[in-house]
Write a structure and sequence with these properties.
The chain is an alpha+beta fold. The protein folds into 2 domains: 137 residues, Trna Endonuclease, Chain: A, domain 1, CATH 3.40.1350; 82 residues, Arc Repressor Mutant, subunit A (Orthogonal Bundle), CATH 1.10.10. The chain is built from 7 helices and 10 strands. The radius of gyration is 21 Å and the shape is elongated. The chain starts with 10 loop residues before the first helix and ends in a 21-residue tail after the last strand.
Length: 254
């Protein structure tokens, strides 16, 4: 992804242009195994639908990635022309998976796949989508979220559940940040326990995970998060998921 800082778009216009162009359906699950569902997006302030675990995992990642400003699922209808066996020119409409607006990079249109096995149809779709994206000065990427290591997939799903702020978090967050700043190399368990007996450590844990999920505190995302994970304050311009940034290759197949 080429670095290119862009000015904030008029998000209201984007909402109108990039609304979902088709409804998520599970009606073919008897033939093609996939999982359809939805979740509430704290970033987009609405329900986001998905029709595979790969989509779900990537949308969870977009929720966590602090550099992502907006993302729009099923955002476009792209005409894909082809020739029939008889030589007739025809076309069908393809709807890509998600368009992502990223602070500091070109906007990117993503196609989410289970595996790198591609038919002639998929090759044609990628060619047309790449050309369309270039015309709009976007990037185009085909990604495989389910190919990520299991511990990273676990962390994405775990932290997604910690994004929502609960009652009383504002009461504890300043103190948590202060203690992390002065307790070098502190683990999650040690940080929570430091509030005892003033506050039950079990009440502090969700606030700590919330600060990690929202990018205020940092952990090593490549190791499965647990009570022994060390936390520290996020440095200036440091991303929540430094090993999973959109300019990297972990989402691409090797």
């Amino acid at each position: 992804m080429s670095k290119k800082y862009f000015q904030n778009e008029q998000w209201e216009e984007n909402e109108m242009e990039f609304f979902p162009k088709r409804k998520v359906s599970n009606k073919l699950s008897w033939k093609i195994h996939h999982i359809a569902g939805s979740f509430y997006s704290n970033k987009m302030k609405r329900i986001i639908e998905y029709e595979s675990m790969g989509e779900c995992l990537f949308y969870f990642f977009l929720e966590l990635a602090t550099e992502v400003e907006r993302y729009y699922v099923q955002p476009l209808e792209i005409e894909v022309p082809f020739l029939t066996k008889e030589g007739d020119r025809k076309s069908w409409i393809h709807v890509p998976d998600v368009l992502v607006f990223v602070n500091g990079f070109k906007s990117t249109l993503f196609q989410i796949k289970e595996s790198p096995q591609e038919s002639k149809k998929h090759v044609l779709i990628n060619k047309i989508c790449k050309k369309y994206s270039a015309q709009r000065q976007w990037e185009y990427k085909v990604i495989y979220p389910k190919k990520l290591p299991q511990n990273i997939l676990y962390n994405i799903k775990f932290l997604q559940g910690a994004i929502r702020k609960r009652k009383r978090f504002d009461e504890w967050i300043p103190e948590i940040i202060y203690r992390v700043e002065h307790m070098k190399g502190v683990t999650i368990d040690e940080l929570a326990s430091s509030f005892s007996p003033k506050v039950n450590p079990l009440l502090i844990l969700p606030a700590i995970y919330h600060l990690i999920a929202t990018g205020i505190l940092q952990i090593n995302i490549t190791k499965e998060i647990d009570q022994y994970s060390e936390v520290r304050l996020k440095k200036l311009n440091e991303e929540l998921l430094p090993y999973l940034n959109l300019d990297g290759d972990l989402f691409e197949y090797k």
